[in-house]
Amino acid sequence: MSKIVVLLIGDITHDGRVKKEINSLKSLGYDVVLIYSRSNQNVPESISGVQTILVKKKYGGSVLNIVSRNLFFYWKVRRILKKLKPDYVHCNDLNTFVISFFRLKGVKYVYDAHEMNMGIPNLFKEYVLTKIEGILIKNAYAVIVPQIDRLNLIRMKYRLNPGKLFLLENFPSRIMTSKTDFFVSEYNFQANGRTILSYSGVIDDDRCIKELILAMKYVNNVVLFIIGNASQYYKESLDKIIEQENLKDCIFWKPLAKQEKVLSIAQSTDIGLCIYRPNTINTYFSASNKIYEYLSSGTSVISNMTPSMLRLHDPNLFLINEITPQAIAQVITEIQHQANRSEKPVEYAWENQEHILGVIYK
């Protein structure tokens, strides 16, 4: 079978999509090697049946430092690729797809575009990134996109042959067992009849965390768990709001959970919260794995009305027209009043689409 090198700038520990892709490729019989750049460990991550190579890369600094560090990183990775002699390189996001500029003869480069570079707030950065993307994408062997509207935008902007574009959505692994005791087992928390709300993931203003917190003023008998890592400044600003509004008894901050725990969070939650401020293409055409984790668990989830959410006809998905604390609170209350409702979960399972990888790497 073919040898595939999966390239990731980041930490594999919290990247569920890349882990699922690696496991799928491995189960399909491919020889898989992971090269990644960040880890809290001093030794490479252990993934059964997969060779892992940690190529550490420094982050931050001036633009010149960032460019020079990236070029040095690509140089080191290219040397490793020459030794490995892969048939394919699976590039996760544009920051790794740049390696295809220094392509090796006979190697096919697949671009897995997790994030959109169009429509980002910084117009100069958008111009530079889309120019780079436009040059490189023409020579991609295949392009993988996690959401259909994003796929169509990429196809139209870069005038790509539809046959080289593949949709691979951010579905969770199939749920085999029910694990609904996460908050008890992990935090020793007893709900005592209260409705458990949760937000899990990146914590910043684009995720409307302030509005989620303020919504707690207008609901009764609830607790909100905010699970993830935030910058110190942003968390301190939210802590002030929590204190001013006297919400300390119903809002709990928790650090980012391990990837293997995320489905247990979704299953143990009464109402999930996953709201994205639609100020970029990435959030307007959201491809949120969190939405699918809640829905696959049969958990009610509140999100906002965007084209990507309107495509999901799921009885457990509740959409708000405007992102305000009052609107969020109103839907929470409505769901609480339907406590005895029971809707069969729609299955969003990674295993139902992993055959697409076999089509790409035929």
Task: Report on this structure.
The protein is α/β, with parallel strands linked by helices and 362 residues long. It contains 14 helices and 13 strands. The chain has helices spanning 16-27, 63-84, 94-97, 123-137, 148-158, 182-187, 209-215, 232-244, 262-268, 281-284, 289-296, 307-310, 325-337, 355-360; strands spanning 3-8, 31-36, 51-54, 88-92, 108-112, 142-145, 165-167, 195-200, 222-227, 251-254, 271-273, 300-304, 317-320. A seven-stranded parallel beta sheet has the order 3-2-1-4-5-6-7, with helices on both faces. It has a six-stranded parallel beta sheet with strand order 10-9-8-11-12-13, sandwiched between helices. Strand 5 (108-112), helix 4 and strand 6 (142-145) form a beta-alpha-beta unit. The radius of gyration is 21 Å and the shape is globular. The model has no long low-confidence stretch (mean pLDDT 93).
